[in-house]
């Protein structure tokens, strides 16, 4: 077992929370949570199913009336308190996250700050849910548009950002006056449960935010079919997103989908190469490459291909791999053996088809994989078509701008893209030509609460964060007053 020394041990919850009660599964079943660094057991959480989920939905529905009747200002004050409590407990929350997810402690601290920023942002947005008046279409008519909370919302979140993916949904939902039932990833439930405890301490009323841990299919089946749930927000793989979209169709639920990615990173001949390498490192190797906005394909123009390859390989070779809790670790473990196998398969396929390993290219024991740079990668390789979700940087060569944009867009995904170049006319041409929801231009780290996060094509539906993010939790109502 991993021994975790928390300043506030009460943050480490081994029960789920439904309607303000911390409880076990009805049948007492549990899930073991392990540390991906060494496979040691961290503890257990309840393995719940449809019955417990149905109770959480009913509680959310019951609590919704009072919560939506509160003013935006009242909800804002509670959310602000939640934000403050997250920052006050940042060290403990980061320790829990590194233990269950594996990312380096510095990244976990950063994620807690990032996660808290969504609560801070939507505490402010709660006070600014404005409607419209519209000039009437007849002298005796007056038209008003108001915005109202959708109602009971469901959230299903992934393991790679165990805190930020929750607050990116719960923040706007609660700010808008909605209530929420959350199902976190089974591999990282402790972060979710600690956040829910802090929400309770901040004054979020019982029933407004419940967290159900356990069987994804059973819990998901109830969340997507129960008619009391009016919206589902999901972050995870495109494959699961499609299943959930189908399941939501039966009750015509609103959905927000943040799904997979296949980000290109284009380096033009006129790029600042040192800046491009710096951007490449953060966009590729953050969370050991396990983020949906990680670069998956490096497209490098002829004139700078060899220099960029040399610089990137040198930097990758210097990255320290190890337990996320160990000092100096830059690359932690992959989440599990399945993730490691997928990375190995991608590298093996690339090598069979002619790729050269400049650095790395091997597992390091356990769930650890060496930061890897592959030269001479080709579009027929799996690593071009599929999301690797690991610390592997394949370098593809291109000749012309048109070829680079065509290669970049040659995917069913459309989440994030990046490019480095300095010709201003080309910057505009390429930015407008890329079929992605987010584009980093001479920048490799683009995620922030103030900007709309989301993708096109099979990378998802809707946007999270920014002034647009709360709209996904509101319904427009048109009032037409006659006889005036
Ligand atoms: N666009 C974005 O912002 C993000 C996209 N992703 C994408 O997600 C993938 C990696 O994350 P990963 O967690 O493996 O993704 P998954 O899609 O496997 O899991 C995500 C969540 O969905 C749950 N889930 C899985 N199957 C079902 C089901 N049938 N019904 C209901 N819920 C289900 C999981 O529960 P359980 O853990 O219990 O299986 C987990 O909570 C990558 O493709 C990545 O690109 C990840 C993060 C962000
Ligand atoms: O889950 C993810 O990959 C996150 O959305 C990435 S980010 O928001 O931290 O960039």
TrEMBL record:
Keyword GTP-binding included in the entry's annotation: no
Keywords recorded for this protein, A-Z: Oxidoreductase
GO cellular component: cytosol
Annotated GO biological process: gamma-aminobutyric acid catabolic process
UniProt-listed Pfam families: Aldedh (PF00171)
InterPro entries: Ald_DH/histidinol_DH, Ald_DH_C, Ald_DH_CS_CYS, Ald_DH_CS_GLU, Ald_DH_N, Aldehyde_DH_dom, Aldehyde_DH_Superfamily, Succ_semiAld_DH
GO molecular function annotations of the record: succinate-semialdehyde dehydrogenase (NAD+) activity
List of catalytic residues: 258
Family as reported in the entry's similarity comment: Belongs to the aldehyde dehydrogenase family.
The protein's name in its UniProt record: Succinate-semialdehyde dehydrogenase/glutarate-semialdehyde dehydrogenase
Residue ranges occupied by any Aldehyde dehydrogenase domain in the UniProt entry: 22-478
Domain of life of the organism encoding this protein: Bacteria
């Amino acid at each position: 077992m991993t021994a975790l020394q928390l300043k506030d041990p009460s943050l480490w919850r081994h029960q789920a929370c439904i309607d303000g009660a911390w409880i076990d599964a009805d049948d007492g079943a549990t899930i073991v949570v392990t540390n991906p660094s060494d496979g040691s057991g961290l503890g257990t959480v309840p393995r719940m199913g449809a019955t417990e989920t149905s109770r959480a939905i009913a509680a959310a529905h019951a609590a919704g009336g009072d919560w939506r009747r509160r003013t935006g200002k009242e909800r804002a004050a509670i959310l602000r308190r939640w934000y403050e409590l997250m920052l006050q407990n940042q060290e403990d929350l980061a320790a829990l996250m590194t233990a269950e997810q594996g990312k380096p402690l510095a990244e976990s601290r950063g994620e807690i700050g990032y996660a808290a920023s969504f609560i801070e942002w939507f505490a402010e947005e709660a006070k600014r849910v404005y409607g419209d008046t519209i000039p009437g279409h007849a002298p005796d008519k007056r038209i008003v548009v108001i915005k109202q909370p959708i109602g009971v919302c469901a959230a299903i979140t992934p393991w790679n950002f165990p805190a930020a993916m929750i607050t990116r949904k719960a923040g706007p939902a609660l700010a808008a006056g909605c209530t929420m039932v959350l199902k976190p990833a089974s591999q990282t439930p402790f972060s979710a449960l600690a956040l829910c405890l802090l929400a309770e301490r901040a004054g979020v009323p019982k029933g407004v935010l419940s967290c159900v841990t356990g069987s994804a299919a059973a819990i998901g089946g109830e969340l997507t079919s129960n008619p009391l749930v009016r919206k589902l927000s999901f972050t995870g793989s495109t494959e699961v997103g499609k299943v959930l979209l189908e399941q939501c169709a039966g009750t015509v639920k609103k959905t927000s989908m943040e799904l997979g990615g296949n980000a290109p990173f284009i380096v033009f001949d006129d790029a600042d190469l040192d800046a491009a390498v710096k951007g490449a490192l953060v966009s590729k190797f953050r969370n050991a490459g396990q983020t949906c906005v990680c670069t998956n394909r490096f497209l490098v123009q002829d004139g700078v291909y060899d220099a960029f390859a040399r610089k990137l390989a040198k930097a990758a070779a210097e990255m320290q791999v190890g337990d996320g809790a160990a000092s100096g670790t830059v690359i932690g473990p992959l989440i599990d053996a399945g993730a490691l196998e997928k990375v190995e398969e991608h590298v093996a396929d690339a090598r069979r088809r002619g790729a050269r390993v400049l650095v790395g290219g091997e597992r390091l024991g356990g769930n650890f994989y060496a930061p890897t740079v592959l030269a001479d990668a080709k579009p027929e390789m799996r690593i071009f078509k599929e999301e690797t979700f690991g610390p592997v940087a394949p370098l593809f060569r291109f000749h012309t701008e048109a070829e680079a944009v065509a290669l970049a867009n040659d995917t069913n995904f459309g989440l994030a893209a990046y490019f480095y170049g300095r010709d201003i006319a080309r910057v505009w041409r390429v930015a407008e030509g890329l079929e992605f929801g987010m584009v980093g231009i001479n920048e490799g780290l683009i995620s922030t609460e103030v900007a709309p996060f989301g993708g096109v094509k099979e990378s998802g539906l809707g946007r999270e964060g920014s002034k647009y993010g709360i709209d996904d939790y509101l319904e427009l109502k048109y009032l037409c007053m006659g006889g005036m």
